[in-house]
Amino acid sequence: MPHEVIMPALGMAQDSGVLVAWLKSPGDPVKAGDALMEVETDKATMEVEAAHDGYLTDLQATEGEAVPVGNVVALISETPEGSGNAPRETPAQGRGTGATDGDCASLPEGRQIIMPALGMAQDSALIVGWSVKPGDKVGADDVLLEVETDKSTMEVPAGHDGYLAAVLAAEGEDVPVGEVIAIISAEKPDTPVQRTRADAPAPVAAPAAKDDAPAQDAPEPAPAKTPTAAPQPAPAPAAGDRILASPKARYIAAQEGLDLARLVAQGIAQPFHVADLDTLRALPADIPSAAPAAAKGATAQRVTADVPAADFAAFAAWLAEDGVGTDAALASFAAAALHGAAGTAGAVAVERPGADATVFAPQPGQPMGTLEPADTSPALVLRDMRRTAIRSVALGAEAVPVLILTTEGDRLCLTLEGQLPPAQAIAMIDAIAARLADPLRHIL
User: Structure pTM?
Assistant: First the structure.
């Protein structure tokens, strides 16, 4: 089945991106993580990676074209020929419809805020909560809301100064990428709008053409779905018994009354994701649940650091010329830092939003160019969030330490979370920071 490649929203203030260049030709094979195209926003030009293996087919946008966020620009197919008949989307056909024509008159004027795509494989995100009340003043860098994907919970900035004049989606609602969720106006609104997606007016139908035939009664529309309150999450278990699951998987499980502990009893690897819920639903009713075998008494640590981003970016580009991927370089540096701090070698899982994790098991002294994905459990998870709008991440306890990479201006920010003893946590983040700041000195 082909996978759609969409124009991602790389920030809340972005409603379109200019496709600067295709980095692959139609019919070329691609792997998840390969640079697929260059996209330009009003802030930067960046590469967008493929989220799936396959062949690039059915290109729907040309170089130099401005494409609305959420529009399909290509397919990744199982064969080089692709579908051969994919329709080209116009801006009016994109996924993010926002307010309907019949709705525009009832909404205040201002800048539309859309649900951003924080990964190429992300179709929607769940609104956890709004940080600003309708009618309140907001700054461009203020946190506007929290959203959940299948990978994490993250804060999203407003992107504009002004007043939150309209909130068009409620907490607990799953919103498609590119859909308008709020409006920020320059002036304080007299009557701010607050509603759910279910409350949005239906599109106004075009008037029927006149003819001599008698008019037929139109079918009665289906009754509008009554919005229901978002389910309250179940009380979290004790720290030592915590079940590790993505926020979206945990939310859906609570909504459907599914017991994640039953997956633990079956030996399914944690953390659990949405795909694991299909396994849970298929379990016989007589399969018991079990408490997770998480280590007790461990204290979570959180250590941060930041280094200039330019040297590692240049280093990664240099490696790419020799066919060495960035994931392999990050895994090699992280494994070396972990070994130096904790005295143990271990595999590293490299994750990006919207893509499956890749596990590497570097051995001491092994060159980066010889690393291959490994089928083993990681001792460390490295979440590369550099190409997203994420500025900070605060997740719950996880089975292994987690190193998170984000960017702030021209700085590369590192956050280490996990159950490492304080001295080891400090030593590790100091070691990985040194490698990312001056990678050529530490290349294997």
Answer: 0.37
